[in-house]
Amino acid sequence: MRSSTFILSQDTDQHTANSLRKFHTHFKECKAGEQSKQSRRPRSSQQTSEPVHNQDLKSQIRRRSSKPINENDLICAIRVMRKVKKTQMLENILDKYETKIVRYFFEKEMSSPSHHVMRLLHKALDMCWEKIMDDCNQFHFSNDILLLLSEKENAKACLFDVMLVYPDFIPVSWAGPHI
Question: What residue ranges do the domains of the chain occupy?
Fold first, then answer.
């Protein structure tokens, strides 16, 4: 299977590919920061002894999240984004002020996203993922799509990849048709 980086090099310009790389780098940094915050929290005596199988599962999930997005995940994400666009899930997910900031990002500064913009995109994709999971039975997704959606962070990254590769999936309120 081809990685999304290979697909991006064929289908998009260098500007979009650079933005995607920056998003993934920033995404991993945010994730690492959250993990370090969790490790600094004091644990109760009940939480200190974690079963071995849970540690193995966590290491498998970490390995999975560090892999590049494969072609099948990208195809599944496109199918999900079709449903999201059809139901206009992302159109009003942020308030007016936040939408204005995200709109400015997509119109002007895609090459250098700020931490605030990245946080807003994470928030929007989190809320979108939650709505998708709430209405999962309504959409009649295939098993491949459900497998993708079962890994929240991977699903969010795939959905954002699809928006960058296919700008028509970017909500109109986020400057979709202007890109």
Answer: 73-179
Helix axes 52-66, 152-165, angle to 10 degrees: 10
Tokens of 63: 């390995």
CA dihedral 55, 67, 105, 115 (to 10 degrees): 40
Q: Which residues, in sequence order, are CB contacts of 127 under 8 Å at separation 6+?
A: 93
Under DSSP, the state recorded for 44 is: P
Q: Which residues of 6-63 form beta strands (DSSP E)?
A: none
One-letter amino acid identity for 21?
A: R
Q: Which residue has the tokens 């109109």?
A: 172
CA distance 92 to 50: 41
Indicate the pTM of the whole model.
Answer: 0.61
pLDDT means per 10 residues, the chain with 179 residues, are 42 50 58 51 42 46 54 90 92 91 84 86 94 89 90 91 89 75
Q: What is the DSSP letter of 43?
A: P
Residue 70's DSSP bridge partners are: 3
- pLDDT at residue 51 in the model: 42
